[in-house]
């Protein structure tokens, strides 16, 4: 770790490769489950909502890493900027809704 760098931001950079692997694994397994049940889920209203939310989550991650993450990486310490807090709140909301839509697949 560089001198003066906050351990929080440093740890964020170390976790990024694991987050990419996790997202990739989730995309592959989710695609396999969808492919196995596509005829059953084709007309389920939760499926397009879930797919749209996953896309929105991906856009949020992309926007975070193209903008706010670069600011955090160059910051030495202090609280995260408001844009990072907004990106985090959007991420929590979107991925919670993705899980909820996944649960609704069985009931709609």
Core attributes:
108 residues, mainly alpha, 3 helices, 81% helix, elongated
Question: Could you describe the 3D structure shown?
Answer:
With 108 residues, the chain is mostly helical. It has one domain (8-104). It is built from three helices and no strands. The chain has helices at 7-41, 46-74, 82-104. Helix 2 runs antiparallel to helix 3 (82-104). The longest helix has 35 residues, at 7-41. It is elongated. The mean pLDDT is 82.
The total beta strand count reads 0
Give the DSSP E fraction (strand runs of 2 or more residues): under 5%
Major sheet characteristics = none
Radius of gyration: 17 Å
Amino-to-carboxy terminus distance: 50 Å
Helix coverage percent: over 70%
What form results from the Cα inertia axes? elongated
**Helices and strands, in N-to-C order?**
HHH
Number of helices: 3
As residue ranges, the low-confidence spans are none
Average of per-residue pLDDT values: 82
**What structural class should be given to the helix and strand makeup?**
mainly alpha
- Number of discrete domains: 1
